Amino acid sequence: MSTSDTNANSHRAQLPPATDAVALAQALIRCPSVTPADAGALDLLQGVLEPMGFACHRLAFTEHGTPDIDNLYARLGTARPHLCFAGHTDVVPPGNEAAWTVPPFAAEVRDGILYGRGAVDMKTEIACFIAAFARLQGERAEAIPGSVSLLITGDEEGPAINGTLKVLDWLKGRGETIDACLVGEPSNPSALGDEIKIGRRGSLNGELIVKGRQGHAAYPAKADNPVPKLARMIDRLSSAHLDDGSERFEPSHLVVTVISVPNTATNVIPGEARASFNIRYNDRWTRPKLEAWARDVCANSAEEVRAEFTLKFWGTGDVFCTEPGPLVETISEAVRDITGRTPALTTGGGTSDARFIKDACPVVEFGLVNETIHKVDEHVPLADIETLTQIYRRFIEKYFKLA
């Protein structure tokens, strides 16, 4: 790990105003920061935040076998309460660039819509939060009664090893405490104000390997074919009923995602067969309990077909839920004030870095409409950018009891 407080003065002449969410979003999108590349995105943010008074720390982490990742932690003030906004500047690859209406990193606006990779997930949310705070800061003679920080990683779309998790460890080592966190992930399915994410299901990956004995397909009795044995075992896993859901969460489920056999010849019985699966689980389970369940299912089905197997697991986040309370009520009120909608409190969807932050403080997620995330022609209406900026401003005001 290395820490450097670099200076972005040389870039500031080209930076957009901190109060202009659209221009800032465009500037971020024009940084082609496909995981693990930063492509200047964090330099840009540092250049905007330092003139606002934020103390910026660039945190580079590395771990054997994983990409080096640059992160940014910026904080204004030292008092409590301490409100943190968390997000990521890394994006997924654009895919077939020829299929895009506009180049994916051009950040063009057409007919009132901003196009680009990261327009929704989630460079624009970062721009909206900065603009919201900059506007509020510019209209107040006195300082915010507390402190505000941004925790921005470049490793959310990747392995998520050298990003938010390690920044949180760094903060803990410094004795810094976060009192509440808003993650700017796109949380709304159809319109701003639809949903606030107050939790996420856990995610557990497994790999099942069934051993066999290679042989000629014409002489199956002289071989031991692992393929039908694997098929029996993954059928038992994928057809099992895990639960009926809980008060805050939908039912848990297991999905087989990969089946592979190291064999290209149709007249050869392979020596092994593999399958990978993912389990999204609710608060009726813990990871150890779920692993034990999967091992039992595999052992029982293996006994049926006399299979020899190995099973391993990995995952980076357990299930969590931030129960309704001050933080949830504050963001809910901000959304209602600006949009007139009462947002549903939900826990569905994939994973996010909130799975790490929940161990440090209460955390919720609210951002743009997620209809076009990871798609060709990812886009956001300019009207939504302004509305989200207003929501974030109202949230900051309410959190610090300024409104």
Helix content: 25-40%
Question: What is the CATH architecture assignment of the largest domain?
Answer: 3-Layer(aba) Sandwich
Instruction: Note the gap between the termini.
Output: 41 Å
Give the SSE string. Answer: EHHEEEEEHEHEEEEEHEEEHEEHEHEEH
As for the number of domains, it is 2
Shape descriptor reads: elongated
Report the β-strand fraction as a percent range.
15-25%
The CATH topology name of the largest domain reads: Aminopeptidase
Give the strand order, joined by hyphens, for the main sheet: 1-2-3-7-4-8-19
Q: Specify Rg, calculated over alpha carbons.
A: 24 Å
State mean pLDDT (0 to 100 scale): 94
- Summed up, the helix count is 9
The CATH superfamily title of the largest domain: Zn peptidases
> CATH class of the largest domain, please?
Alpha Beta
What is the number of beta strands? 20
Category by helix and strand content: alpha+beta
Largest sheet entry: 7 strands, mixed
Residue windows where pLDDT falls under 50 for at least 5 positions: 1-13
Give a description of the structure:
By secondary structure, this protein is of the alpha+beta class. The chain has two domains: 2-200 and 319-399, Zn peptidases (Aminopeptidase); 202-317, 2-Layer Sandwich (Alpha-Beta Plaits), CATH 3.30.70. Helix content is 29%, strand content 25%. It has nine helices and 20 strands. Strands 1-2-3-7-4-8-19 form a seven-stranded mixed β-sheet, sandwiched between helices. It has a four-stranded antiparallel β-sheet with strand order 13-15-11-16, covered by helices on one side. Strand 2 and strand 3 form a beta hairpin. Helix 3 (123-139) packs across helix 9. The longest helix has 19 residues, at 287-305. The two termini are 41 Å apart. The model is unreliable at 1-13 (pLDDT under 50).
